[in-house]
Design brief:
This protein is of the alpha+beta class and about 425 residues long. It has 16 helices and 10 strands. The chain has helices spanning about 10-30, 30-35, 50-65, 80-95, 100, 155-160, 165-175, 190-195, 200-210, 235-240, 275-280, 320, 330-340, 345-355, 360-380, 385-395; strands at about 70-80, 105-110, 120-125, 130-140, 145-150, 180-190, 230-235, 260, 270-275, 295-305. It has a 10-stranded antiparallel sheet with strand order 2-3-4-5-1-6-10-9-8-7. Helix 1 runs antiparallel to helix 3, helix 1 runs parallel beside helix 7 (about 165-175) and helix 6 (about 155-160) crosses helix 7. The longest helix has 21 residues, at about 10-30. The model is unreliable at about 1-10, about 30-50, about 55-65 and about 410-420 (pLDDT under 50).
């Protein structure tokens, strides 16, 4: 998938689609509005109505879309109105719809999902295979009557980073049809270089959470209420005293990575994950001295499990405002990063890291190819087969359509290829 630039036409096409939706709505409600006009005042004191307010809101959020240092990393929205669900699907699934413009396909299955009767997978094509980046589900009756739309971290990032005008259009579509968020994850990434320079590590953040209430809500009414904590990864050196939060070096210790969980995911509205994203992404192929091993991600998972609260759809376009809301301790980490880095630089870094997350690095592909087929290649060499013949036997007629060339000392004739260009 090639990166689609933010052209003026992109934004205008999105505005036209919203205009069309609102026009259809105006026509369907023309009679009731005319009958009730004398009894009900305008929705705003300037004499405009809800439709104009929504258009103005759309135009004002274009710049806000770019002004975030965090990103939505998971989104699940639901709706109970089947007519509104059907109207939403039209704009999502039709030719020229949001998914089509983002090169996403939809494949319906014979089974349900999350309590819904029917479901479909949202797919993208990557290196001759499909990758699932979301789901759609529907139920005609019962407790879950209505529909659901879910985007994974990859699905969210494709729209936010590669098709931001479509992400904005999706927001307005969901808002217009009164979808509501049942789950949204917001991710704050601290690059390895930044985390190391400022002393951020997973053990230190966990210690601050446990001792100083780093992730505690400022609105906590009961000061004696304790947060729950869980860990994943190999913390054994901490358990026996060989390591402590103060002497832990992410470039040297725990190569498989550490994770800390703050809160109870099953019962709480807010749940946090703090983990070494660089190690998760690069795995054992990262060089020991690579600063990427220090890259930390703080994820805030918001849900409605405990209180049934309303999570505003605005989370989609203003994640910074809702990340760890009313938790000044962890928000201070985000504020410090915003003061240190321009938003433009932050988004460029996010795009570069997203390419890594999509597995586009040749070094990663070679790493897994060596583990999967290295013994076979060595056996063929030992049997006297020429290297060129092995290449012909094992290679396909065409190369990768999209990749990141991150190998050292590339040949002078090297040319980077992406889909549709050379």
């Amino acid at each position: 998938m090639s990166y689609k630039a933010n052209t003026r036409d992109d934004w205008e096409n999105s505005l036209d689609r919203i205009e069309r939706i609102l026009s259809d709505k105006r026509q369907s409600e023309a009679a009731p509005v005319a009958a009730d006009a004398a009894d009900y005042p305008p929705y705003c004191n300037t004499g405009g109505y809800e439709e104009s307010e929504k258009i103005n809101k759309l135009q004002k959020t274009v710049t806000k879309l770019e002004a975030n240092i965090t990103a939505v990393d998971w989104l699940r929205v639901t709706i109970t109105d089947l007519d509104a669900y059907a109207a939403s699907m039209t704009d999502l699934l039709d030719d020229g719809g949001i998914f089509s413009q983002a090169d996403m396909d939809v494949k319906w299955a014979d089974k349900g999902l999350h309590g819904y009767d029917t479901s479909a997978a949202i797919l993208i094509w990557r290196d001759n295979d499909y990758l699932t980046v979301g789901h759609i589900a529907k139920a005609e009756r019962g407790r879950n009557k209505g529909g659901m739309l879910e985007l994974t971290g990859t699905g969210c990032k494709i729209l936010q980073l590669e098709y931001p005008h479509l992400w904005l259009e999706l927001f307005n579509l969901l808002q217009y049809h009164d979808w509501r968020i049942s789950r949204a994850d917001i991710a704050l990434d601290l690059s390895g270089e930044y985390a190391l320079a400022n002393g951020y590590t997973v053990p230190k953040l966990l210690a601050q959470a446990k001792i100083n209430g780093l992730f505690q809500s400022d609105k906590l009414r009961n000061p004696n209420m304790k947060q729950s904590f869980h860990i994943a990864g190999d913390w054994s050196d901490f358990a026996i005293g060989l390591l402590s939060p103060d002497n832990y070096d992410p470039l040297e210790h725990c190569p498989a990575g550490l994770t800390a969980y703050i809160g109870n995911r099953k019962t709480a509205d807010d749940f946090f994950r703090v983990y070494e994203k660089g190690k998760e992404l690069l795995g054992g192929m990262a060089e020991p001295e690579s600063v990427d091993r220090g890259w930390i991600r703080i994820e805030h998972e918001m849900s409605r499990k405990a209180s049934g609260r309303i999570i505003p759809l605005e989370v989609m376009i203003r994640p910074d405002a809702h990340f760890a809301e009313s938790r000044s301790g962890v928000r201070a980490i985000m504020d410090a990063l915003r003061a240190h880095q321009t938003l433009e630089a932050a988004q460029q870094w996010q795009r570069e890291q997203f390419k890594r997350e999509k597995g586009l690095m040749l070094s990663k592909k070679m790493h897994w190819a060596r583990h999967s087929y290295g013994r076979l290649v060595r056996t063929l060499i030992e049997q006297g087969i020429d290297a060129q013949d092995i290449i012909e036997l094992l290679s396909r007629t065409s190369g990768l359509k999209e990749f990141v060339f991150d190998l050292t000392d590339p040949p002078q004739e090297y040319t980077r290829f992406k889909r549709g260009e050379a």
